[in-house]
Specification:
single chain; 370 residues; alpha/beta; Rossmann fold; N-(1-d-carboxylethyl)-l-norvaline Dehydrogenase, domain 2; 2 domains; 8-stranded mixed sheet; 4-stranded mixed sheet; 15% strand; globular
Length: 370
């Protein structure tokens, strides 16, 4: 690239503030957008974000070019748009960016959960956005971070390798070329079906929360989520869900990482079974359970992660009874219809596609039947 790219970070929560501050400290011109202006008043007044970090990590005052709640202002100078919001807000962000996106801009969802980029691109098209924009998604969020105050953020860890894929994947190289300037940690994630089906939160979060709902409500989350919450029986449910996810991927011609492989890759943790492997992961000790069942592990991970995987399974002939049972439990507990609210393949406009047509769509961007 001949010029230093301008980054716009959408979302000023735990992740967005950390990313904006870090980009600014790396001397990339950076804009921070949040739809609720009061939420960014502190950052606006200070002109940036004070960043603390782990030993050896980035720290200092990240001075921002612009802090705004006006989407047209936020996107005006952007080369790359970093969307750092819960995946349940992706469709809303797509609607609000649609009128202002321009040719050549790259939008990256951090992360996409499952089918995030597919949903985002469909909403852009449905809202008459004709700009030649690349939409991409990451498999997970690069930071473990939290907001420490109105204009303060803290990074606990930066992941060493994060898969990213564009839709279509024949444009992933364009994304990597730009994102590698600040973040050499990003690697080619194959395509958006691969990043979406390697979504481990879909397996761990909803089931573990729902199967411990009595304990969560009785203690307000005052127990160790993974250590006390994962008993042999609960782990067997997680293993069944994981088998279904891996089988859905196989039906689409993809090789998804198993939960055991993921634990080995992410934490170098092993065991005879999932229960033992989780208990062998030192990083899980001390992590408390959600304080309430009104938590993103259900209201985000069920409709945006579990529903699309189960929907793909139903369409392509895979038994997903375990996933369906967890989704239905979530519907009962939250008195809502997550199947209706979630990312089903019908809602994503993919319901009529064969496996070959779906593969062609995520690789080449072509939606017409062969």
């Amino acid at each position: 690239m001949n010029h230093t790219p301008h980054f716009t970070v959408i979302g000023a929560g735990h992740g967005g503030k950390a990313m904006a501050a870090h980009l600014a400290l790396m001397e990339f011109p950076t804009t921070l957008y949040n739809r609720t202006h009061e939420h960014i008043l502190g950052v606006e007044r200070r002109g940036g974000v004070e960043l603390e970090s782990y030993e050896g990590g980035p720290r200092g005052f990240g001075r921002l070019e612009k802090v705004t709640s006006d989407m047209s202002e936020a996107l005006k100078d952007a080369d790359m748009v970093m969307v750092v919001v819960p995946s349940s807000a992706h469709a809303d962000i797509a609607r609000s960016t649609a009128p202002y996106l321009k040719d050549g801009q790259i939008v990256v969802l951090h992360p996409g959960r499952t089918c995030g980029a597919i949903e985002f691109l469909k909403v852009l098209r449905d809202n008459n956005c004709t700009a030649d924009v690349v939409v991409a998604e990451t498999e997970t969020f690069i930071y473990a971070s939290r907001s420490d105050g109105p204009a303060q953020s803290r990074i606990f860890r930066i992941k060493e390798a994060v898969p990213v894929a564009a839709l279509p994947s024949n444009r992933t190289a364009e994304v990597l070329e730009m994102i590698h300037l600040p973040y050499p940690q990003f690697i080619d994630g194959g395509n958006v079906l691969q990043t979406g089906l390697n979504n481990m939160g879909a397996i761990f979060h909803p089931a573990l929360t729902l199967l411990n709902s009595g304990w969560i409500e009785a203690t307000h989350g005052d127990y160790q989520f993974y250590i006390d919450g994962v008993t042999p029986s609960v782990a067997r449910v997680l293993e069944a869900l994981d088998r279904e996810r891996v089988t859905v991927a196989a039906a689409l011609g993809l090789r998804a990482r198993t939960a055991m492989e993921w634990l080995k890759l992410a934490y170098d943790t092993t065991g005879e079974d999932l229960c033992e492997a989780i208990h062998n992961q030192p990083g899980y000790y001390g992590i408390k359970a959600p304080p309430t069942l009104n938590h993103r592990y259900i209201f985000e991970d069920v409709p945006m992660s579990l529903v699309p995987i189960a929907s793909l399974g139903q369409r392509y002939g895979v038994s997903v009874r375990g996933m369906d049972s967890i989704i239905r439990l979530a519907c009962i507990v939250h008195r809502t219809d997550y199947w209706r609210r979630g990312r089903t393949i019908e809602k994503l406009g993919l319901g009529e596609l064969s496996v070959n047509e779906l593969t062609r769509f995520v690789i080449e961007g072509v939606l017409e039947p062969e």
